[in-house]
Amino acid sequence: MKNTVLVLVMLFSITSWQTTAQFLESFDTEIPREWTVVDNDGQGTTWQYHAGDAYRGPGEARINFETNAHEDYLISPQFTVNIGASDLVSFYAGGSGLAFPESFDVKLSTTGADPSDFTVLLGTETTISDVDDLGEYINYTYNLSAYDRQQIYIAIVATASSAFHFYVDEFSVEALPSCPKPSNINYENLTATSLDINWSAGNTESEWIVKYGLKGFDPETAGSLISVTGTPNTTINDLEQGTVQDIYVKAVCGNGNGESEFAGPLRLVTPCLPATIPFFEGFENGYTHNNNLDGCWTQELVMNSYWIANNTITDHNRAPRTGDWDIFLAYGSEAWMFYPIEVQAGTNYTLTFYARQSNTEGANIAASYGSTDSAIDMIHEIVPTTEITEGDYQEVSGTFVPATSGIFYIGIKGHVNTGFFPFYMTLDDISITETQTCLKPTGIQIDAATDTTADISWTPEGSETDWLVKYGEPGFDPETEGDSAQVRDNPNVSITNLIPAHVYNVYVQAQCGGGDGNSFFSGPLTLKTRPVNDNLCDATRLIVDAGCSGSSFTNVGATLENNEPQGSCFDAPGDQTVWFSFEAPASGNVTVTTDFEGGTLEDTEVAVYDTPSDCSNMATLGMEVGCDEDGGNTGTGFLSVVTLTGLTEGSTYYIQVNGFVSFNDGTLEGTFCIEVQDNGVSCPPPTDITFENITVTTADVNWTAGDRENEWEIVYGEPGFDPNAGGTSVIDNDGVLGETLINLNADTTYDVYVRALCNSNDMSEFSHVASFTTRMSPPVNDNLCNAIRLIVDEVCTGNTYTNIAATVERDEPEGSCFLQVPTNTVWFTFEAPNSGNVTVTTNITPSDLIDSQMAVYQAPIDCADLNTMGNEIGCNDDVDLGNNELLSAVVLTELTAGETYYVQINGNAGEEGDFCIEVHDDGIACPAPTDIAVSNITANSAEVGWIAGGNETEWEIKYGPSGFDPDTSGVSVIDNDGLLGETLSNLDANTNYDLYVRAVCDLDTQSDFVGPESFSTMELYISTENFSNFSYYPNPVKNQLTLTANAPIENVLIYNLLGQRIMGA
Prior knowledge:
Mean pLDDT: 90
Number of strands: 80
Strand content: 35-45%
Distance between the termini: 120 Å
CATH class of the largest domain: Mainly Beta
Shape: flat
Low-confidence stretches: 1-21
CATH architecture of the largest domain: Sandwich
CATH topology of the largest domain: Jelly Rolls
Radius of gyration: 57 Å
Structural class: mainly beta
Number of domains: 8
Helix content: under 10%
């Protein structure tokens, strides 16, 4: 059980609490031997250990019910009171709730553990907390500081009379806080709205805070507050009548000691103000669903269980008469319910209430009044014991005249037998009024009803000759609403223009006239008009296969005709049948069904009959031809499905729809749908034969079943064969529609027929013929391991190859340029030529394959496992889609000479056909020059020549110092003048050069550099005779060099020691 703590008193944290307390007893496994239990009342029941329901831990101390008042002591071990250490006693206690208040005393002894020793009363308490059902405990504490250094005993003394359970747990002795909370909270002078409250101060404080509110409120955050100064008492004047109130008090100590914890709650029930006349109780406000009736009602249990408030339960006739609430009493129960009323002597009062039960007998009710809310005081009878039955609410009424004025209690006693029936008795709409002189009519009844009219009559209780009849939707208020009919002289009326299959409430009021005025309304009487097809002669005609949706029909208000049969399958036949008819279709096979969602009638019974000779005489109804009660699948599965075969085409058949009888609620009624569905011939042939997954030797055949059969025969053979005389037969009875035909011949056409095998004696005709052709055997190179080897530059002619009937291997790759997953691929291989450059093409005429796709891959590790396929190195879908050239060509460069490569050919979008494929050696793209030669070398020039690698007309010459890299440095010279060869000039004398040449085939294509070709320029020298009589001298001061010669000097060239020219032209 979950424990709910109503008040939590903790002076320190648990750890600190245990170390400073003199002791703690939790009663987890027993009442220890150190404790004393005394059965001082001698009744044989006393305190004992109880497992479960503890405030904390596995168990607690508990005392149970005794016939007479308790006087049972639960006595603590002796302990010494020490100020600041063990001067507060605390424990948690609770009982069995409001109906069983538990009183107890807390006593102290300084001398011994005998009951007579406990002469000090620390507190007298009463608890109505509910440990049994809610786990509610209340904390009680008592100040022991007056007994400093004394050895004492504490006794908890149970004193309640005829209570149920009283619990004690978590008994502790601990340190009194600096601001002790008050104790011994008591009240007196309790009225419906006020009381006087007093308490014992926790110490010497003179200020307190009182908090109060409805049971369970949190005094720290809620509740009404009163501040009290001076003496520990106050008056509360604004309580709510008939409620459970909690009251808390805490001390305001001052002097730095702050405030105490809240003491309490003191829990009490405020009495109710007596009701004044007129009084009405419809239970619409202030009650808790499925809980005992409480508030200003008190109850006295005779046996089993109390009256229960109800807001949602409607089964077993527990729906309210008016509004949304009522009360009920369960089977095997008897209980009184009391309410205080204020009456005047000599006044005639009428008590009226309405009751019904879930069976025809076994429940009764009575009413009396007396001076207290106790059965023993119910000495004035108002209503004698009255048997209550099922159906509409039964009005129960009686009058009484009190002899004296004052407050009395009305008591209503309900009794429901033990046993299986009835389950419940329900009560609603209690009223007490002054008895009228114009008495309301009684015995309202329906004399006759049709789909649009009703005859109503009643019994006058006086001599009146005028009445007002009110009728309308269930729950309407006759005082302000509804349609009316004024009646004079005769106590009956015919109401017209009603809605078929509709529910109405009907009231009747006597109009006495003169000073007697009008009576109260009598009612309501429940009126249900008949459905239009209530009688066989008015059967609604159903059109076969017309369909039905939602809730088109109803059996609300339906009846049974004289001599009307009930279907043979009706397990619990109701008495609200409606009728339909239909004309049998040509097939003679139908399903009649109510198995549809959307209606409110959840359990139908359906029977079908041959036509009667006279629809007004049920004795002439034809034989039953079908019946079903619970064959449906919708909802709870209690709707009906009747399958009929062999009906006579064009004959009329009649359908009876009834509601199942529930022992809870009588005949079930509501809205529903019904259809008559043509099932066609008894064993119709299959249709729509189709073929899938056709291979060389197999094909999957499927069809649409003719009906609900689950076995078929497939017969197949050569075109034109007779399935009744030849062919191969296959039976499909595995529960899955469809079959795979095996061991077929390649590239062969077959005719196929299918027929249904409905049962061992019934099979359909063969279906219409359907045909298919098996696929051809796949090409030899359908698989990678069987790839055809192509010879580079070998010519292909005349559609040499094909992908007709080709397939796709497991894990076969899909070329990156393929637009769809490949479906019919074949494989080729070739060995890369020395050039490493090839074109693989299917763009060869003629070609029956119009649109191919091609991908080229490096060789696999294992041709049988396509997961090991090498990388794709080329892919092409269309050579030129824009010009509708849909065959394929892949240009590959830098292949490894001698390596094998694999070519995948697929027909785009499943295309098949013959085709050619070739591998062309594209050679080297831009061949390098050869035979580089350097000639006519001088000190500063040299001529370069070479042999062209191809047809190129442009070359690049690179030269530089020995060892230079032509890709990153050197002097570049372009030869594009149309003459092969070039003269290099401005070379340095006596220098070693490297030289390279490469072909420039176009803007984007060059060969590799060829070289190096090395050469050295000549030394620079001057003839001797040119230096006769030649002299020179420098002038460092003027940075001047003076030259003299025997001939004119025309030009001066100056070189340094490295042979580099530093001056001169």
